[in-house]
Amino acid sequence: MSFQPIIATSGLAGWRLLQNTIGRQTEAHNSSPVIQNSGEYFSDNISKVKSADDLVGDRRLLEVALSAFGLSDDINNKYFIHKVLSEGTSTQGALATKLSDSRYTALANAFSFDTIPQTVMPGFAEKIVSLYERRSFEIAVGDQNETFRFGLNLERELPQIASKETSNDAKWYSVMGNSALREVFEVAFGLPSEFGQIDIDQQLEVFKDISQKRFGTDNLADFSDPETLNKLTQLYFLQDQIAQNQSLNSGTIALTLLQSTQSLQSNQ
Predict the structure, then answer these.
(1) Positive or negative: CA dihedral 102, 106, 107, 108
(2) What pLDDT shows up at residue 255?
(3) Structure pTM?
(4) What contacts 175, CB < 8 A, 6 or more positions away?
(5) Which residue has the higher pLDDT, 192 or 111?
(6) N or C: which end of the chain has fewer CB within 10 A?
């Protein structure tokens, strides 16, 4: 039987309960047979992999590698993944550098098949397995509550982006290019679903403007601070609850109107 996290309730209250039990739950998840066996196989065999051909040719290794970067849905897109891995990021025009989804760049950088393969380096297997375990736990949580998966993803990825030695705008573009992080910011900032259709530079200015108003800063580096990150997380869950309540109320009103109409028709 696969691991099933304990999700007591939804919303901010449910998130806080998950945070209070996350240590025990992640330990139970990582000890489950499927996760443990996959991790052990990867650790025992990844040092034999020297190229993209080797990795793509071993489905079990590839599954752990892709899952570690949130790309498990690409397990059957072997030609595409092979191109991402083999071209890496060091050459101009490499596929990963052209994709808006930063996860492919992270995957290509981690393995570095275009320069010096990292698969034989000390600690590499442990690093990838750790990412695999955490991502797999997030997916298990997301199967029960998608907003909690986004919250866990936010805690893991935003501090990494915030601490990068790049410009503030570059950090914001990284957030905007990450679908899960983008979802959190759009919900937390109360942006409409059509927001992603406007000019990308205009989107950047809107994100920075709202961040300045809500948090007193538009500098993403400030979100590496646990207190600021926690404020963003709480805002996300509160805004999500508001949206869900509005949707529920709209549905209730529509149902009441429908029942009233049917009642009038039956009395005529």
Answers:
(1) positive
(2) 47
(3) 0.82
(4) 158, 161, 181, 182, 185, 207, 220
(5) 111
(6) C
